[in-house]
Amino acid sequence: MGNNLLKGKRGIIFGALDSNSIAWKTAEKVHEQGGEFILSNAPIAMRMGEINKLAEKTGSEIIPADATSVEDLEKLIAAAKEKF
Questions:
Q1: Which of the four pLDDT bands, split at 50, 70 and 90, describes residue 1?
Q2: Pairwise CA distance, residues 81 & 44, whole Å
Q3: Distance CA 39, CA 55 (A)
Q4: SS3 for 3?
Q5: CA–CA dist 14, 39 (Å, integer)
Q6: What whole-number distance in Å separates Cα of residue 21 and Cα of residue 75?
Q7: Which of 25, 35, 61, 67 sits CB 3.0–4.6 Å from 30 for a disulfide?
Q8: 26-81 pLDDT per residue, tens
């Protein structure tokens, strides 16, 4: 049960693959505490994981981005700025 410690806070969480990943647990806690975020991971990792379940659970948008691609990261940041 959260106490809205992060209410009004917004960000991007990278790397949530499945329920065993640190990013997944972080996303759950941020959501529990009232924060909003966009989920992101490399497209190939997204096909292997269960990020869609996390997005549904937390009401988050998923934007694929490869951290080695400046273009992908620029698109992700632009989309986050537009959303938030």
A1: low
A2: 24
A3: 7
A4: coil
A5: 6
A6: 24
A7: 35
A8: 999 999 999 999 999 998 888 887 999 999 999 999 999 999 999 999 999 999 99
Instruction: Read off the amino acid at residue 84.
Output: F
What are the tokens at 62? 């998923």
Q: State residue 21's pLDDT score.
A: 94
Instruction: List the beta bridge partners of residue 37.
Output: 11
Radius of gyration of the chain (CA): 12
CB 43 within 8 A of CB 69: no
Average pLDDT over residues 1-8: 87
The predicted pLDDT at position 46 comes to: 82
Q: Which helix (H) or strand (E) is 24 found in, with range? A: helix 22-32
Using CA atoms, how far residue 5 sits from 2, 29, 49, 66, 71, in Å, is 7, 10, 29, 30, 33
**Cβ atoms 60, 38 nearer than 8 A:** yes
